[in-house]
Amino acid sequence: MASESVKVVVRCRPMNQRERELNCQPVVTVDSARGQCFLQNPGAAEEPPKQFTFDGAYYVDHFTEQIYNEIAYPLVEGVTEGYNGTIFAYGQTGSGKSFTMQGLPDPPSQRGIIPRAFEHVFESVQCAENTKFLVRASYLEIYNEDVRDLLGADTKQKLELKEHPEKGVYVKGLSMHTVHNVAQCERVMEAGWKNRSVGYTLMNKDSSRSHSIFTISIEIYAVDERGKDHLRAGKLNLVDLAGSERQSKTGATGERLKEATKINLSLSALGNVISALVDGRCKHIPYRDSKLTRLLQDSLGGNTKTLMVACLSPADNNYDETLSTLRYANRAKSIKNKPRINEDPKDALLREYQEEIKKLKAILAQQMGPSNLSALLSSQVPLNPVQSEEKLAPPSALQSDTEAEKQLIREVRPLAGGPVAGRGGEAGSHGEAEAGQGPEVVAQAAVALEPPPEPLLAVTSVRRDSVGVEVAVLTDKLLPVVDQERVLARLQLLEQQVVGGEQAKNKDLKEKHKRRKRYADERKKQLVAALQNSDEDSGDWVLLNVYDSIQEEVWAKSKLLEKMQRKLRAAEVEIKDLQSEFQLEKIDYLATIRRQERDFMLFQQLLEQVQPLIRRDCNYSNLEKIRRESCWDEDSGFWKIPEPIIIKTSLPVGQVLARALSSASPVFPHHHHSRCDLFGTQCPHL
């Protein structure tokens, strides 16, 4: 399987009002032609600037439109072909991550990556020929390491992460919402955006206090030239990460400080995952260290095309944070992913939809005749998806359960005259009538499918009628009369769930689509050529060139020597900086270890004082046994420990009566202790 590197671009925003008021100086410069970013240390002006090379570099005068067309467009196009894709923005708080992902509605050139991806997806869907798509959206956030559904009925409910051998890590109970156009996608995103956790800090008045992931899931049903159908599935994750922050700059206290701590921990876990993936010697990748890294597991080293947008502040007072972001991004571009087209997904809902559409059309064709059915379908006024959506509850109240929908489709619904079942070909497993409960019928495709294999029970052929709709021609085992209005309503509802091919004849739109693809490819070639022709990348031509005079050769080689010396000094400074940072991190880690050791000793001493007071007939009196029976739960991040139990010892009946007769005090009834009553001193009868 071919591998490809994670694509990384950097974007530097303009100075904000706060930085201008502090008289900050710019320390970031960009060479967009070569995709290079330079960072000058404000405390060491004599040192050469630090240099980083990426797949793209954009300065304050570049618009989001250019970033999308040059870098993001090929990735989103791949999703419409059946690949998985992830785009995420990273950077310190207030560096422009949400602006890059969400953008502004006006001017149009500053619309964010997310709304542009919506337009792109539905443009590709509308241009496709002989292809149908089922497009669904979900929106979640990770707040204080809790996963929440931003489109759910209860946006504060904590959801669990689960792992499936085929579909990987997923969120149990996350709502999925079918969307038919860009406007519906934007309304769904807006509804979720209002539920996001944001708060005021000194760095940003609307600081994101959570990581958010907007996911577009696409199921693709295509028919090739031979009439054979193919099913694929793509998924686009649009991730807006909360920014890393320092308490001294943000002024965070109380709840804001707790949020910042959780944010920094998850971003640190993300950095550790990136470092482990880049380090070829590391055998363990710590994906389970945070909810964020678990959800992005496939995007980092897995079956996904990934793009990282590193957002920078140009100000000198953010030098340390900007340098950290650039190093973070520089490591990420070395990650190798293994993207592949997701062929024939097992849990595809679109397959279920298409099979029921076949069955319903076959039922109607049996009752009405193929020509009448074609005329009726062509005369039906399709419901406007926007209007139909307005009749429904708002997105927060719409929770689509995929498994429940599949079960509904598989059920054989009695349509005015007894059960109707489908058998034959691939649809047979989804709707067989019980023995003796009605006739059997095969329903074949209404959407450009190949004729079913012989022999057939009730279908003799599949032919195309005058309006181009393929219908099943039934001859045997006539069905009872069905409620045509119910069948038509169900058929229309199912067909409205899928989209595709609405602009297949629009040559202008298709040409525009091809032009955008060519532009992205040409920009990539230009960047590669610029790097190859860069004088700073190689000095071989200086050494191999034939000169007209000794003076010319001395001049050229002196220039080359100066460049190499500058590179050497920059490398030495970088090594010194990394060693200094390593020492600081080492000191920080050692301080953390010492603090944890002190906490451990405190708990150990408390336990030694408390253990003798625990009742002897309680299972917690044997702590060594409790330790052996406890286990760590990776999913929840907590220890599973045994419940406290009081072990009752019953005396023989004779001894009880003897004690009762010989005792002057009344016999106390059998005393039931509560679960937390572990100490004998709490019981007045002991």
UniProtKB/TrEMBL annotation:
Q: In which broad location class does this protein mainly occur, judging by the first location in its UniProt entry?
A: cytoplasm
Give the UniProt entry's GO cellular component terms.
microtubule
Q: Where does ATP bind?
A: G91, Q92, T93, G94, S95, G96, K97, S98
SUPFAM superfamilies with a match to the protein in the record = P-loop containing nucleoside triphosphate hydrolases (SSF52540)
The annotated region (Disordered) lies at 413-435
GO MF:
ATP binding; microtubule binding; microtubule motor activity
Q: What domain of life is recorded for the organism?
A: Eukaryota
> Which keywords fit this entry according to its UniProt record?
ATP-binding, Coiled coil, Cytoplasm, Cytoskeleton, Microtubule, Motor protein, Nucleotide-binding
One matching Pfam family: Kinesin
- Tell me, what is an example of a GO biological process annotation in this record? microtubule-based movement
Q: Which residues form a coiled coil?
A: 561-588
List each copy of the Kinesin motor domain by range. Answer: 5-335
Q: Where is the composition biased (Gly residues)?
A: 419-428
Q: List the subcellular locations.
A: Cytoplasm, Cytoskeleton
Which PROSITE patterns does the UniProt entry name for this protein? KINESIN_MOTOR_1, KINESIN_MOTOR_2
Q: Please name the Gene3D superfamilies in this protein's record.
A: Kinesin motor domain
Quaternary structure, per UniProt, is: Homodimer. Interacts with APBA1 (via PDZ domain); the interaction is direct and is required for association of KIF17 with the cargo that is to be transported. Interacts with IFT B complex components IFT52 and IFT57. Interacts with IFT70B. Interacts with PIWIL1. Interacts with TBATA.
Q: Which family does it belong to?
A: Belongs to the TRAFAC class myosin-kinesin ATPase superfamily. Kinesin family.
According to its UniProt entry, the function of this protein is described as: Dendrite-specific motor protein which, in association with the Apba1-containing complex (LIN-10-LIN-2-LIN-7 complex), transports vesicles containing N-methyl-D-aspartate (NMDA) receptor subunit NR2B along microtubules.
What is the designated name of this protein? Kinesin-like protein
Annotated source species: Canis lupus familiaris
> What is the organism lineage in this UniProt record?
Eukaryota, Metazoa, Chordata, Craniata, Vertebrata
